[in-house]
Amino acid sequence: MHRSLSGRATAKVLLSLLLAAMVTAAGAQKPAATEDARITLAGDSIVNRKLSVFDDPSSTGLYDFIRQSDAAFTNFETLVTNYAYPGAAVSGGAYQSSPSWIPSELKWAGFNIVSTANNHAFDYGVAGMQSTLRALDEAGLAHAGTGDNLALARSPAFLDTKKGRVALVAVASTFTEGSLAGEQRPDLVGRPGVNPLRFTATYTVNHDEFEALKRAAALTAGGGEGGEGNATRSPDVQSRVRLGSLQFQLGVSEAVSTQPNKSDLEALEASVRDAHRQADWVIVSSHTHESGPGGQSLPPEFLIIAAHAAIDSGADIFVAHGPHILRGIEIYKGKPIFYSLGNFIFENETMLFQPAESYESSNLPESASVADYFDNRSANDTRGFPVNKAVWESVVAQISFHPDHTLDQITLVPISLGYMEPRSQRGRPRLSSPERSKATIDEIAKLSAPYGTTVTYRVGRGFVDGATK
Phi, psi (5° rounding) for residue 212? Predict the structure, then answer.
């Protein structure tokens, strides 16, 4: 009898412990199962100065907003070299280099995942790229888009958060010659570099222009050792002709069509499918300077194709950057596409040094200083980036997803980078004034309308609500 009662008592105790464990587990899982995941995106960060020294409300308010995120992304469009390596023969513009503590400043600001695939990735060659990746690793910033071979450049980066694992796949359609990563082989190591999203452009021209191009092709054919010179004919010789890397076709009206490189697009899709199976959230980033035929504020056709393909393959977000201005937002199959988020930090005139190539390209003497170079480049702030207001006003986007991965809301926070301020002051982000906030949101609403996306302005911010398209 005593044994029987003891057995029943033991069973009751075990049952009570099991129920308690189930309740505890359910309680522990509740926040992750019921709260939105928040992913924040910023555009290009060309940064070489301290962020953490500013404590004004417009700065602290911005960084507090970023820190509210589970994951926060920016394009790291600089290098961490400490000027220890020679500049490459070709750069993506002014040669970018930043102090070793810059990645820690970005982490202080709230960022935890970055792209390194862009046209400045090789400004200081392989050594500069590898030095940058080491610095990002040391700061604890996840990164994707460049690597010691093509497979590594294409591979996703992963970030663990309380709301799930976040993956990033990063590509660039804009890059310098010789900076593309190469395949690894059994008999030879791969080439370090950038994960590419190449494309082809076909120009449609009228009859007279096409006939002139055919004559030019005939004149240049046979000029090289290979017998083809710079001109080749496509299989359809009656309606297409190629001059070097340019392809032309006969048509009624002038137009430009761009298509992504088939192998690069397939590789992007494969990387996204892999990331989708290994993570809870997938971000795809593309550094793309190229514009659509309607002007700089429109994305090129190949980028739209790539964005749709990425989401079809399992991406939750597609974000582009590179033209240094804002472009529109599309909601494709319930997932957001940002065709450009412009600049987040644009300190592209305060690097300490520039290689000789920068001075030579500006016809400056050997005695010229870096200040001389930047004065010359902008004609003392009368041309280029300094006078383009759109370059200095942008947004930071925060996307809220329900636990079932449906889109809850996009919040757009307008920022100012100091338009027409002195070189020593402009480039760092801060919250925009109420007046400028309204103008910025109105602009992005206009750019997004052709995609069927409605952006509304409320209390200094823009919102895309409950998109289910």
Answer: -65, -40
Which residue type does 366 have?
E
Q: What residue spans define the domains of the chain?
A: 34-197+261-465, 207-250
Determine the length of the chain. 469
Tens-place pLDDT, residues 411-424: 999 999 999 999 99
C-alpha closest to that of 119 among 340, 288, 365: 288
| 204 touches 254 (CB < 8 A) | yes
Q: Characterize the bridge pairing of strands 193-194 and 146-147.
A: antiparallel
User: β-pairing, 240-243 with 246-250?
Assistant: antiparallel
The count of C-alpha atoms lying within 13 angstroms of the C-alpha of 290, restricted to the half-sphere facing its C-beta, is 23
| Residues of the chain with confidence (pLDDT) below 50 | 1-6, 10-11, 13-15, 17-33, 223-237, 467-469
- Write out pLDDT tens, residues 361-395: 999 999 999 999 999 999 999 999 999 999 999 99
Which residues in 6-135 belong to E strands, given as ranges?
37-46, 71-76, 113-115
- Nearest CA-CA partner of 142 in 122, 164, 160: 160
Q: What is the DSSP letter of 272?
A: H
CB atoms within 10 A of CB 276: 18
Q: To 10 degrees, what angle do helices 262-278 and 301-312 make?
A: 30
Q: Which residues contact 35 (CB under 8 A, 6 or more apart)?
A: 163, 403
In this structure, which amino acid lies at residue 117? A
Compute the distance between CA of residue 347 and CA of residue 382 in angstroms, rounded to an integer: 17
State the sign of the Cα–Cα–Cα–Cα dihedral 302, 304, 309, 314: positive
The CATH classification number of 34-197+261-465 equals: 3.60.21.10
User: Cα separation of 255 and 301, whole Å?
Assistant: 12
Q: How far apart are CA 428 and CA 377, in angstroms?
A: 20
